[in-house]
Amino acid sequence: MRPSRSSLLFCLAIPALFGPVSALAESTFINPVGGGNGSERCLVGSFCAGGGAYGGAMSILSIFEKDLGKGPFVRVDDAVDKLWQNLSNQGGQLLALSRYAGDTSRLGIDDGSGFRSLSGATGNGKVQVTHDASFFGDTRSSDLVKVSNSAWTTIPVSAGIPFSFVLDDISMGYRISADPTRAGYANSGKSSLDYMVTFQVPDTVPHYFIAWEDRDPRSATLGDRDYNDFVAEIIMSQPLAAFTVSAVPEPSALLLLAAGLGGIALRRRKAV
Ligand SMILES: [Ca+2]
Ligand SMILES: [Ca+2]
Questions:
Q1: With the CA atoms of 240, 244, 245 and 247 taken in that order, what torsion angle do they form, in degrees rounded to the nearest 10?
Q2: What is the pLDDT of residues 231-272, one digit of tens each?
Q3: Closest to 234 measured CA to CA, from 203, 192, 188
Q4: What span, in angstroms and rounded, lies between the C-alpha atoms of 128 and 147?
Q5: What is the pLDDT of residue 44?
Q6: What's the gap in Å between 159 CA and the centre of ligand 1?
Q7: Separation of CA 249 from chain center
Q8: Dihedrals φ, ψ of 61, to 5°?
Q9: Which pTM does this prediction carry?
Q10: How far does residue 264's CA lie from ligand 2's centre (Å)?
Q11: How far is the CA of 82 from the centre of ligand 1 (A)?
Q12: Ligand in nearest proximity to the CA of 102
């Protein structure tokens, strides 16, 4: 099971998950069609035209939208996903959900005391879902792995201590921080290179998906920028600071939003 909502609600002192709507201060570009080996799924908001052998398919995040049944995810301002913190001790949970990358990586954190691993290395080309019957007809159904959701990991950080997520590329032996101002990582000091983007789940608790690009920062690029290389689900006891939503969604995003709203009633019926 996913962690009990009631077990997390007790520490929620901020009931409003949606902060004030304002202009997006910083939005890292995501390449919607990918550019890897063609087996990658494209990200939300894309029709994946030209996405190699998987053109036209659902994105990883749209799979999770469908799996959770809570409505469309909302892109989080990249100005605020570098540092996270909780209102209670050990108040966050993490679940590693998918990886589409040749490199084997795991996810961890750094709260100022160095890297701490939080996840194992997930299988390549796999997406963990809990409602596999919802994906009948998916053109790559073999990618979808049904899980019991028992693999949540507590984020071992005390209340009020800011931390950053870190991707540990085990194959290549480098680590990338979501906060490039933090010292000791392959992308330290390279603020123009943002390797992690974040989406919020409409929920009664602060609930997010983080998605990584795993290109070696020493090459000073962001690779194919599809941000499919590692995706994890996060539940917190405190929303990201100064959370904002895009004031001017792109036309394709508006179409998706309309489609998503139309499907909310159905999704709610099947949601656990
Ligand atoms: Ca970011
Ligand atoms: Ca990539």
A1: -170
A2: 999 999 999 975 444 433 333 443 444 344 434 333 333 333
A3: 203
A4: 6
A5: 64
A6: 22
A7: 19
A8: -70, -30
A9: 0.77
A10: 30
A11: 6
A12: 2
